[in-house]
């Protein structure tokens, strides 16, 4: 609340500083530019302090006067008419409150700013003091104007003087902030530029690390290819490869036998399903093998239990115990299975014996060649990924470098406006 309702805010006028002629001043790093900005800001703070010095002195004089008025007010004997006696306690309490408040605010000491934060605190402290004085004098204005008229006028004069000083502080701060605005903007740009430069350096280090990894991988790749070439060029490898080829051929024939067995037994699967009711667990286990993995029968030492089971199933179909729509076809398939089973068993076990014998041969060189080929494939895949990542990071570096160039250009233009010197900013 303004004291006695006397004080109103005034509009603040400010005018831009004249721009000096530009002078070439050489290159600056981002750090040097930030130091230069701090120096410029410090100089502007000192200019502000010089401008506020007379304001501070004038305000201090007014506060001394107010302190003196508070002392006199405290000593003053208040004269009340007969009818006014009933207000004595109210008047005395008001006087005590006003005196106490004025003394407290009059004791305020203002320090000229040495930093931007100090400048803001100077203004805030002045405003707070005036608000407090305004609140206490405004709330007790009736008592002051009726019973202590001679002090009211003097306080009014000092409050008006302080109000003018506050307006001067506000005007000075507004002009200071206006002049400081490009410094703040430039500082923000340089901070962003500094972060972007750090990001670029980090990315460049990453690109170099990737390059080192690629070179190391290339070296290992050449070594592996050399080892593989020497290995495949040896007579021992050719012999081992021939053995592996025979193993693969034998295993392929075994796979064909398995497929043949699956095909044969799939034709009688419905008969197995119909026959599976009310049988022993042993029979159920054999029937499960015939239904799901019939090729296993071929590797049994004795296939007679399975042959007998197939015969029992055939009899059940033939006698009508197991009824099927195409029972004649199923019986025919069962005959084919029973007839071919011994031959298929002989072929399967011969192939297994051949495979086992071939596995006894030395095929380590072929396995080693496969290991090397897998490593070569892994290395080539790793190199492809690294090259892709490297190109991606190089593109990002180029983009960030362009963005950084724009930031440094903008910051340089602001420094030119602030100093009248042309700086070339570098990172």
Key terms for this structure?
427 residues, mainly alpha, two-stranded parallel sheet, 11 helices, 79% helix, 3% strand, disordered N terminus
Quick synopsis:
The protein has 427 residues and is mainly α. The protein is built from eleven helices and two strands.
Question: Could you walk me through the main structural features you see in this protein, from its secondary elements to its overall organization?
Answer:
By secondary structure, the chain is mainly alpha-helical. 79% of the residues lie in helices and 3% in strands. It has eleven helices and two strands. The protein has helices spanning 30-75, 88-106, 116-139, 141-147, 149-232, 235-266, 269-275, 281-292, 304-319, 327-359, 364-419; strands at 23-29, 421-426. Strands 1-2 form a two-stranded parallel sheet. Helix 1 packs across helix 11 and helix 4 (141-147) packs antiparallel against helix 5. The longest helix has 84 residues, at 149-232. The two termini are 53 Å apart. Residues 1-20 have low confidence and may be disordered.
Write the layout of secondary structure elements.
Layout: E1 23-29, H1 30-75, H2 88-106, H3 116-139, H4 141-147, H5 149-232, H6 235-266, H7 269-275, H8 281-292, H9 304-319, H10 327-359, H11 364-419, E2 421-426
Parallel strand pairs: 1-2
Shape summary: elongated
* Cα-atom radius of gyration: 52 Å
Helix amount, in percent?
over 70%
- Given as residue ranges, the uncertain stretches (5+ residues, pLDDT < 50) are 1-20
Neighbour order of strands in the largest sheet: 1-2
For the largest beta-sheet, the strand count, sense and barrel status come to: 2 strands, parallel
Span between N and C termini? 53 Å
- Sequence of secondary-structure elements: EHHHHHHHHHHHE
Beta-strand percent range = under 5%
Number of helices: 11
Quote the average pLDDT.
85
Q: What structural category characterises the helix and strand content? A: mainly alpha
Number of strands: 2
